[in-house]
Specification:
By secondary structure, this protein is mainly α. Helix content is 83%, strand content 0%. Helix 2 runs antiparallel to helix 3 (97-109).
């Protein structure tokens, strides 16, 4: 039996070669897309971890600041009560005018 040569053989070779190229090219594209998706997912996970770490650090800083905060100042009612007592002491003659003014300034500043 004779082998057939000519355009039929060339066409068959071209079709097989093209099919192999397309199959390889598609497989390479799919692998590249999977790799890109995996890299993107890893980057997103890293970014999420960094955000969570920053949130924890911020919460710790806020807690530390709250612990160091000044104690609340006396309320208005407390200040009025202190001023009334101070006025009574002045009226009773226990405090001088200068002492009264100095204590009054402390109460109002606090």
């Amino acid at each position: 039996m004779r082998r057939r040569r000519g355009p039929g053989l060339i066409m068959t070779t071209a079709v097989v070669g093209t099919t192999a190229y397309v199959a390889t090219s598609s497989a390479n594209k799919a692998a590249a897309q999977k790799q890109a998706a995996a890299q993107q997912q890893a980057a997103q996970q890293k970014q999420m971890a960094e955000l969570q770490a920053n949130q924890q650090m911020l919460a710790q800083q806020q807690a530390a600041q709250a612990a160091q905060a000044k104690p609340p100042t006396a309320s208005t009612d407390d200040k009025l009560t202190q001023l009334q007592k101070l006025g009574e002491l002045k009226t009773a003659g226990v405090l001088t005018d200068a002492e009264f003014e100095a204590q009054k300034a402390k109460i109002l500043a606090g």
